[in-house]
Amino acid sequence: MKKIYDREHVVEQGEDYIISSSTEKGKPERNKDHTVYAIHPQFPNVKLLILADGITNAKDGAAGAQLFCNQIEKIFNRLDEDAFCNVEFTMQQMMYAVDSFITGFNKQCKSDCYALGSFMIIVDDTLYSLTVGDIRVYYKKDGRVRQITNFETEYELGKAIGVSDEFIEMYNPKAKTTPARTIGKSLVAKREYVTVVEDIEGAYLMCAGVGNHVSEECKSEIIENVEPAEISRALVEIAQHGEVTIDGVTYSERTIESRCDKNLSSISYVKNRGIILER
């Protein structure tokens, strides 16, 4: 397990995959983003990636992000073999349980540990993804970068999974991003929508603060050309500075002019894409 703060860039390499994570503090005095990856202690074919974005306006946002990551990882490490027979249901239960725990903590301690949260569980060649709040999850397929988290249909998804009318009212179906649906406010449904991608190959990313500042074309260029270990760092640097130079090659954002001066994080999982094993 690795936790990443401030400007740290961490890489984990396996036989056929590379996980990398990068985060940038920005203007706030403290980085409120938190990322974790872990391999299940009993089942090495099962991996976990988490990204939490503490709410900037919440005094305890950083603690909320850390609580989310710690609790998801704690449950993950205790999962037995039966839990992976229905990974979607297991992830729904994990998200609901962690939200209930943090909500109870906030009420008891009169705190505001609020965060956006997203996590992936990878079992062999199948990836499962669950997100609450505006964290973007991407993958590249057929030459295009696609966004797994589709916030334009969040309203319909809410109705489809049986959330209450009060819960659905939290959404604006015409908005391109979600409103303030966060962990720690009892806004998580018991049956959240889980995206499943089978036969995974290539790059899969979770990003906070990057999506609005790096175009699809630029993301595609980075994923296609940058070494897997550098993908997360490259996206974070471009979102903040507009360009990044890696191995003597400069990659620039040519479409979106706005830059991000807040917390930025990205964690990526790249499988079977030109990976050279360490001997």
Topology:
Elements lengths: L1 E3 L4 E5 L3 E8 L8 E7 L6 E9 L6 H18 L8 H23 L5 E9 L2 E7 L3 E6 L2 E4 L6 H7 L4 H4 L26 E3 L4 E7 L7 H10 L5 H11 L1 E4 L2 E4 L11 E8 L8
Antiparallel strand pairs: 1-4, 2-3, 3-14, 4-5, 5-6, 6-7, 7-10, 8-9, 8-11, 11-14, 12-13
Structural class label: alpha+beta
Fraction of residues in β-strands: 25-35%
Q: Radius of gyration, Cα only, in angstroms? A: 18 Å
What is the H/E order? EEEEEHHEEEEHHEEHHEEE
| Major beta sheet summary | 6 strands, antiparallel
First-residue to last-residue Cα separation: 22 Å
What is the CATH domain class? Answer: Alpha Beta
**Helix-residue proportion:** 25-40%
Side-by-side strand order of the widest sheet: 1-4-5-6-7-10
**Unreliable parts:** 1-7, 171-180, 274-279
Number of domains: 1
Number of helices: 6
CATH topology: Phosphatase 2c, domain 1
- Summed over residues and divided by their number, the pLDDT gives a mean of 79
The CATH architecture comes to: 4-Layer Sandwich
Overall body shape:
globular
Please name the fourth-level CATH homologous superfamily: PPM-type phosphatase domain
Number of strands: 14
